[in-house]
Structures are given as structure tokens and as C-alpha cells.
Amino acid sequence: MFSEVYDVIVVGAGHAGSEAAAAAANMGSKTLLVTMNLQNIAQMSCNPAMGGIAKGQIVREIDALGGYSGLVSDTSAIQFKMLNKSKGPAMWSPRVQSDRMMFAEHWRLRLEGTPNLDFYQEMVAGLILEGGAVVGIKTSLGLKIKGKSVVLTNGTFLNGLIHIGDKNFGGGRSGERASTGITEELIQLGFESGRMKTGTPPRVDGRSLDYSKMVEQPGDEKPSKFSYLDETKPLVKQRSCYMTYTSPEVHELLKEGFDRSPMFNGRIQSVGPRYCPSIEDKINRFADKDRHQLFVEPEGWNTCEVYVNGFSTSLPEDVQFKALRSVVGFEKVKFFRPGYAIEYDYFPPTQLKHTLETKLVEGLYFAGQINGTTGYEEAASQGLMAGINAALKVQEKESFILKRDEAYIGVLVDDLITKGTEEPYRMFTSRAEYRTLLRQDNADFRLTQKSFDLGLASEKRLHKMEEKKEKSLSFVDYLHDTSVTPEFSNPVLEAKDSAPMKQSDKIFKIFSRPNITMEDVMEFPGVNEFIADNELNEEMLEQTEIQVKYAGYINKEKNNADKLHRLEDIKIPQNFDYSNIKSMSYEAREKLNKIQPVTVSQASRISGVSPSDISVLLVYMGR
Ligand code: FAD
Questions:
Q1: ipTM above 0.85, yes or no
Q2: Kind of pairing, strands 6-11 and 31-35?
């Protein structure tokens, strides 16, 4: 049935698998996507939303690299918000509320429209290996399919165990069976595995809710979008979300179920996401808080199903139901599905190289939740990187690695493989030391050329980015070179309570003042003409504003990143043995031997490796 040898076989069509398959196929590799249920491609297992703080930046990066997550998010969005708009641009984070069904449908359509990509529905039960390298997969029905590389993206399915109150049963997600066989085989091959858990709230019937008692949360008045391409458009119509709160009464009702909670009676032992706790965890840990926010989020344009964000729980269904009925606006609530928790196997990501290829088995890549991460965006970006690198390896080309000052994706991968993770890893802006450089507005500047060189970004995309860059930079130059006299500037400055000028000065300098906006600058003679003559669009104007206002911060971070590159340039030989470096701490030697960092810079980021260990290492590297 499968006589040909695929270049890349991707196991699992979640967010990681879908991006991996698209990238490999778009790079010309003959690719097969094998998944347990083709109806559930890119299923949103939890909240119907993409982006958010730091995650929105990742979606923009995926888009700039030629991935599909941004395009699909745009076409299935029901609401758009730019979060943190009151803070500096490094913190601006796009987020959409998604139509869950449309999201999965649009992903499937895009994948079906991708050349070089075949599909097959079955559970993969094992790998075929030859001399330390993977050469294919085995399915649960005994089919053998040959491939030069395999990307595993099993998500929450590996020996998945679902918990609701005191009941538990095997499953990879509600209504879907767990995946068995792979963990056991990988352990036999020498891999280390662990167990994590996550949870999800109940979904309810929107027709049973009283929205008049809740606070409306509309989308942005001027919505933007994720993709840099013109192929998608900002939303014209949006759906609102709503906000309500729990209360002491709700908390008391929830506590009635604590003795049957798998979280508290010891049935769930594994670690869950600390920043995304269940409602029972919240009322237990923050006992002094008498209420918690709940966001009531529609699941799509045409469905009445509603997601109760903030009420993730694995308490018994009757307890969930009774407690939710005491929430304001939920007095007559009807359930569609109860909340639940799930435990699953993961593989500590320190077993991977920067390419996401495993150190133990050549040609085998891991991406997504299998690496101990959580979140669609984290998964999708790893899938993209694994798919790209698997394709490059088969094509015998140099691997593709993003540095920490180039992309959040670079930070994510480097954190995972260097530090590992003991709890579900999600991205935060605080994880990136160069977040002023890694903004959502400039992911195209940072990554489009790279993507074009890989064969992913089209020439059209590249030209669009170059035009934006050239035009916004020429406007910055114009503002640097053009002066304005007090006669024109002072009325504007006075209206903004900004100190008046005594003599002519460059517009750039005036624009750098904190409360002076692009609209103010447009009142100076010649500026509007320059904008019109050069056909500068809104995106270019925004880019110019950021380049002027944050020039100091941006330059400082660029200098710091350059310093890092000096350490990044000092390579450590492969399989370097640290055991005999007695002047290094025992812990450092042990960690360095295990992780085998590629550069001195990577070594310095390993927990337990101190600056003095690095000084010793530098001497060994001849510095
Ligand atoms: P998944 O989306 O899980 O996809 C895995 C895919 O692999 C599926 O298509 C599956 O069918 C397929 N597959 C698995 N094994 C095999 C096999 N052997 N053979 C063939 N196909 C296989 N994230 C958050 O950020 N916040 C949350 O609050 C949150 N809560 C969650 C709650 C629950 C109950 C669940 C299930 C997930 C939750 N997540 C949450 C996580 C989020 O859904 C994942 O991070 C994301 O979907 C991971 O993407 P992935 O591609 O790695 O895996």
C-alpha cells in the first residue's frame, strides 16, 4: 500500500504536526501526515483562541516564516484584540477569539491544498530503526511505512488518562482514544520520559446564559490581524466576549467536591501548568480571594456553545454544575460538556538538539506538547522548526536554527533543549532577554528573508517586507533630516503640554518626546506631502513611529545582543568530555556532559553552570 519512501513522516495532526507537515511539504519534501483522526486536524483542545501575550508574537513569527497558523487564525477569527496597547510596542500582543470548527476546517483545507503532502488515518504504534537511525513507522494495524525522517507530535495522547472527579479513563482528549506503544518503545531505546497534566473547563449552552448580568468585552474598534500577507483582511464584524465572577458561595459549593477531586486525593500526581491553574487550585491556593474572574467566550459564529475561561476543573460533574449555577449570569446554565483533567507522557526536551532532532536516534524529531510545552502557539512553532529541519536534513542542507535575539521561537527552543522543563512550559515575554528586538510588528523584518532562503516565503512576501522596510526607514531619515520652526511646532507642543521650542529643531527630536504622536507630527509642514508622495500605509507609519520613539532601547539591545554573539561564536567540539575539568563544579560537569552545549553561550544558560565555570570553560576553549 505504501511502497514509496517518504522524505518526512509526521505523526499527529495537532498544531505541531500540521505546521511540520506544511513546512516539509512546501520545501519540496515528499511528506506523509499520519494521524489518529483526520476529522480532528489542528483541533483546539482547550480554549478557542490564538495569540495573547508572547504567544501572539510567536504566531506573527510563524507567519513571517511561511507557516499557516497566522493565516488560519485570521480567517477563523471572531474577535481581535491587541493586548497591552497601553504599554511599549515590545509588549503589544495580538490575540484572536476563534471559531473552533472553522479553525480546524481551514487548517485541513490549507493542508489539502499543499503539494507533496499525503494523508493517512491510523494510530502509529512504533518506529522502524536501522543502525541508530529511524527509517519508518509501524501502525497499530501492522502497516509499515518507510521514511527518511520522522517527526513525532503526539500532544497529550501518549498514555493519556482523563480524570473527572473519582472517575478516570484512557483518552488523548475528550472523546478520543489514547496513543499506546510509542512511549514504551522510546524508553527501551534509552529515552527518559515523564508525566504532566493539564485541564479544561466545561463548555455550556450560550442560550441558557443571562448576558445582561455580565460585563461585555468587545473586540478592538480598529482590529488588526496576524498575517503579513494581504491574503487575509481584518475583521469587519466581531463577536463580543463577556466577563463575570465566582463568589464565596461558588467556592463553598466547589469545596464540597474536594474529597472526590483527583487533584487533592492523590490520584493525579503529575505537574500541571502553574500559571493556568484549575478553579479548585485557585480557591485552595488563594484562599483570601473571594472571587475569580471568568471570561465567557463564544466558540464560533454560528454555534451557541460557550467556553468558560477561568473555570478549568476536574471536580465531579455534579459539583461543577452546581457551582457554575451559582455564578452571576449562569443561574440557568445547561452543560454541553464537563471540564476534565488529562495526564500524559512527555519527553524531557534536553534530549534534543537545537534542530529538535533527538540526540539518541538520527532522523527522529519531537515537536509540541511531547516536549513538555503547553499551548497551540508553542506547539505550532516547534512543529514548523522540526518540519523545516527534517526537510533540510533529507536534502543534505545546513540546519536552520533561530538565535535568542532573532525570535521568540529561538528562545523557546533554546530554553527547552538547554534548561529542560519540569512543568508545562509556556512562553512569556519575560523569558526573552531581547524583547525590544522581538516585537510583533517586526517579525517580518527578522524572519522573511530567512524563510525566503529556505524556499518557504514567496517572492511576493519578500518584496512586501522589503517595501515596508525601505519606506519606513526613508521616512525615519526624512524626520532626522527635516527641521521645523517654533512657529509651526509650538502650537502642537503647547496643546500637548510639552515644553515650547525657542529655535528650529529636527522633527525626529520632537517626535521622540513621549506624548507627541504621529498625528501631531503630521501637522508640521511637508510631512503629509512626504507620506502621500511615498505612499506610506498605516503599517509603515506605525513602524516609523516605533523606530523613532524606541531608537535608544532598540540600539541598546542590539549592542547587548552583539556581545552575546561573541560567546555564541565560541563553538565547543562535539562530545566534549567535561569529567576531568576538576576546576569546574561537579554539578556543572554533570550538566554539561548531559546537555552537550554547542557553544559557550549555550553552556552559560544551563542551570547549575556558574560564571566561574564559564571562565574555566573559556580557558579550555583557548580564550
Ligand atoms: P495535540 O494538539 O494534542 O495533537 C496531537 C495529535 O497527534 C492529534 O491529532 C492526535 O490524534 C495525534 N496523535 C497522537 N498520537 C498519535 C499516534 N500514535 N498516531 C497518530 N496520531 C497520533 N494549552 C494551553 O495553552 N492552555 C490550556 O489551558 C490548555 N489546556 C488543555 C486542556 C486539555 C484537556 C488538553 C487536551 C490540552 C490543553 N492545552 C492547553 C494544550 C494544547 O491543547 C496543546 O498544547 C496543543 O494542542 C499541543 O499541540 P500538539 O500539536 O503538540 O498536540
A1: yes
A2: parallel
